[in-house]
Amino acid sequence: MSVMYGADADELDRLAAEFHRAADELDREGGLMTQLLNNVSWLGDVASRFVGGWTGVQLPKIGLSTRFLREAADDLARNAAEQRSGSLRNTGSLESISVRPPVPDDDGAWAFLEQSLEVLGLGRDAIESIIHGLKGFLGPDQVKDLLDNLLTPAFLTVIKGIDVVLDVADFVVNMAKDFADHAHLEMDDRLSHAVLDASIGVGVSKGVDAAITFALGALGSVVPFLGTGAGVIVGKVVGFVVGEGIEWGLEKADEHYDVKDSIADRGVDLLNDLEAAGEMVAEAVDTGRELIEDGVEFIGDVKEAMWLF
Amino acid sequence: MALVGGDAPALFGFANELRRRRANIEATTRKLGSLVAQANWVGPDRERFLSEWNGRHAPALMTVVQELGEAASQVSYHAQQQERASRS
């Protein structure tokens, strides 16, 4: 089965140009430093050793690095050209992310999902477990919705890059379920909700630090406006609430009160507040503090209620 | 006994130039690595490129950075010796 890979060819070309510029600059620097050394009045054994080291060791190393940078630039430019020509590799078709073929809205969506999960490098067991889990509650059009909006190549890369999820299959199924359950929300809110809910799940199984790492990476990937200090605050809020949740038995409480869902709801409210505030960090801090206070109170209520069981 | 001598202010100036260029090369290396890591690029070509960059190219540049720092320290040290000798 082929696997979908790709890149933005223009972006790779821009990167190649950056690498070429860096190579030219390093070339210039090497020449300038040699010129400066030649112009310094410096005699004696120390000077001779230094000049010998410079011309025999340092300068050749600078030359080698310059060559490496040019090789890297050529490599990037070649990749960009391959993206444009749509040439085939033994690994499958090369398609640009920006022109990823439309996800089929019939049963083909499941095959498409399977291909996308292969990009994550998941084993057959995990992939089959995900497909089986999702088929329990998703129709083909909902799979398409999931692939078009949440499980994009960029987001899959984030999941792959964050090595904090014990069981990727469970994680993807739970996140997809939350995404499907909140179809009534605006798309940004749906994405945030699924990520926050998943972050809390990560926190329960892997700890607060893992949840914060996940929340920051994943939120930054799906909600671009969070690529600021606001993301850090959201991460701290998630971490705090998850920490409290773990301490008071969030998993058990969740069975009765759907605590994760409620916390994710509040997280989405916070994100909207941040957006409306034009990412003003001061306001985010206030909102974050309020959420933390709410979280403490809420978890306290849960704790109290749990004594009744 | 070999001839020993140098223009201390010029040597200090050269050491500073080495440090300045060292900082430029270090910043450029980090920037390039970060640009590639953030690029909208998925698949084995990206993994191969990053492995080559992180395993070979970036370390080569960082060696240059480190050696420029050491060279600057050597030159500064020697300039201080010159100043001390000229004062005594």
Descriptive report:
The complex is a heterodimer of chains A (309) and B (88). By secondary structure, chain A is mostly helical. Chain A has two domains: 9-98, Orthogonal Bundle (Helix Hairpins); 102-306, no CATH class. Chain A is 76% helix and 3% strand. Chain A has a two-stranded antiparallel sheet with strand order 3-4. The longest helix of chain A has 41 residues, at 45-85. Chain A is elongated and about 80 Å long. The two termini of chain A are 51 Å apart. Chain B is mainly α. Chain B has one domain (8-87). Chain B contains two helices and two strands. Chain B has helices at residues 8-38, 44-87; strands at 5-6, 41-42. Chain B is rod-shaped, with a radius of gyration of 19 Å. The mean pLDDT of chain B is 84. Chains A and B meet through β1, α1, β2, α2 and α6 of A and β1, α1, β2 and α2 of B. β2 (42-43) of chain A pairs antiparallel with β1 (5-6) of chain B.
Element layout with pairings:
The complex is a heterodimer of chains A (309) and B (88).
Chain A: E1 6-7, H1 9-39, E2 42-43, H2 45-85, E3 88-89, E4 92-93, H3 108-119, H4 124-135, H5 140-149, H6 153-161, H7 168-181, H8 187-206, H9 208-222, H10 229-247, H11 250-257, H12 259-276, H13 281-306
Helix pairs in contact in A: 1-2, 3-5, 4-7, 6-9, 7-8, 8-9, 8-10, 8-12, 9-10, 10-12, 10-13, 12-13
Chain B: E1 5-6, H1 8-38, E2 41-42, H2 44-87
Helix pairs in contact in B: 1-2
Count helical runs of chain A.
13
What are the secondary-structure elements of chain B, in order, as H or E?
Answer: EHEH
Percent helix of chain B, as a range, is: over 70%
User: Mind telling me the C-alpha Rg of chain A?
Assistant: 26 Å
Structural class of chain A: mainly alpha
Number of helices of chain B: 2
Distance between the termini of chain B: 19 Å
Integer count of domains of chain B: 1
Number of strands of chain B: 2
pLDDT below 50 for ≥5 consecutive residues: which ranges of chain B? none
- Helical fraction of chain A equals over 70%
The two chains with the largest interface, and their residue counts, are: A-B, 55 and 43 residues
Order of helices and strands of chain A: EHEHEEHHHHHHHHHHH
> Main β-sheet of chain B, in a few words?
none
